[in-house]
Amino acid sequence: MANEPKNENEVVQRFTSMRQEVQTLYQKLSELDAELQEHELVIKAISDMEEKRKCFRLVGGVLVERTVGEVLPAVNTNKQGIASIKEQLQKQFDSKKEELKAFQDKWKITVKNDNSQQNEAETSSGDNKGILA
Predict the structure, then answer these.
(1) What's the whole-number mean pLDDT along residues 91-102?
(2) CA atoms of 63 and 73, how far apart (whole Å)
(3) What is the CA radius of gyration of the chain?
(4) Which of 2, 4, 31, 88 has the fewest CB atoms within 10 Å, counting from its CB?
(5) Listed GO molecular functions (predicted)?
(6) CATH class as words, domain 8-115
(7) Pairing relation of β-strands 54-59 and 131-132?
(8) Average pLDDT of the segment spanning 17-27
(9) How far apart are CA 108 and CA 129, in angstroms?
(10) What are phi and psi of 22, to 5 degrees?
């Protein structure tokens, strides 16, 4: 990192902001995953219907009447776009998670509420330096 933290407070602030960024990316990935599942349900529900059958689609908050033949390709295209965005976001998430882990290891940061490291924090020699609440 170009600008290293100068004191313990800066380390804590940077760690907290990095952790928040990872959490935000995780939440966005979860939202995209839910949208993908919704698109798959719609595709599954209307794919066996006649192409001329009446169908309604929500476009920008407005319910519009279309046919299955018009809606199905659009939903498939949207699903592919969401999957592509999710893939890019997953790569970004993995990268940020590794960066956070490296920062945590470099500064020997342990988190009391973190289940994977809770035992380490409890068995430390009583020195709270490097432990975040």
Answers:
(1) 97
(2) 18
(3) 23
(4) 2
(5) unfolded protein binding
(6) mainly alpha
(7) unpaired
(8) 98
(9) 9
(10) -65, -40
